[in-house]
Amino acid sequence: MTKTAIELQNVEKSFKDNLVLKGVSGQIEEGKVLSIIGPSGSGKSTLLRTINQLEKPTSGGVFFEGKNLVEATSKELKHLGESIGMVFQSFNLFPNHTVLKNVTLGLVRVKKMDEAEAKKTANDYLTKVGMDNKADAYPASLSGGQKQRVAIARALAMKPKVLFFDEPTSALDPENVGEVLKVIQELAEEKLTMVIVTHEMAFAKKVADKVWFMQDGQLVEEDTPGVIFNHPKHEQTQHFIEQVLLD
């Protein structure tokens, strides 16, 4: 029986008078890949940021390991930061540090590893994403795909229980997209719990166990990729799929 990793209960998020998330409820299953799709401005990235508490929900609950994170103490949120990893579309690497240093920083400061152990761990994960040969390079010398693979290695090195990707290929040139998607697919095969906001429909169809379609801040439909992409039940989903397939 599949366990629930994270549960959302009627999550709402407002920015002043703008209601961005409108009562989103759903379950993220352990060891599964969830892809969140939908038009720009539908609330996908805000939902990710709300789940991991980068944004506080206006109302509703986000439950992780039985704890409502909305009510969590700062100490409990620190534990959350170690348990939920995030890979951003803009990489968020430190330009003044080498690739190796970018990965070891969190291990030393948050995990309290000694420098030698942190370097070994960092090198292991850089090898995993095919970036061990760039350990001494600085981010400015890397392609977008290489930067994103370093960002993935940095997130993985913290050994998160859940890994979020916020449109991980949207800032990449087309020739760099494949190398990043390949790494994510390999992680899916290892049964890492992942939530991926993406515009790469073919990839979502291939790698996801479940797909959420969002529009206007609402979770309109959730189902397997086969249903969402081939036999969507809702008119809004159907219209979106037809539009992206025409592009």
TrEMBL record:
Q: Where is this protein found?
A: Cell membrane
PROSITE patterns named in the record: ABC_TRANSPORTER_1, ABC_TRANSPORTER_2
Where does the record place the ABC transporter domain? 6-241
Task: Give the record's membrane topology.
Answer: Peripheral membrane protein
State if Transferase is listed as a keyword: no
Keyword ATP-binding appears in the UniProt entry:
yes
The organism named in the record is: Fructobacillus broussonetiae
Q: Which domain of life is it from?
A: Bacteria
Keyword set, alphabetical order: Amino-acid transport, ATP-binding, Cell membrane, Membrane, Nucleotide-binding, Transport
Cite the SMART domains for this sequence.
Answer: AAA
Q: Which family does it belong to?
A: Belongs to the ABC transporter superfamily.
Q: Which GO terms describe its molecular function?
A: ATP binding
Spell out the protein name for this chain: Amino acid ABC transporter ATP-binding protein
Q: Which InterPro entries match?
A: AAA+_ATPase, ABC_ATPase_HisP-typ, ABC_transporter-like_ATP-bd, ABC_transporter-like_CS, MetN_ABC_transporter-like, P-loop_NTPase
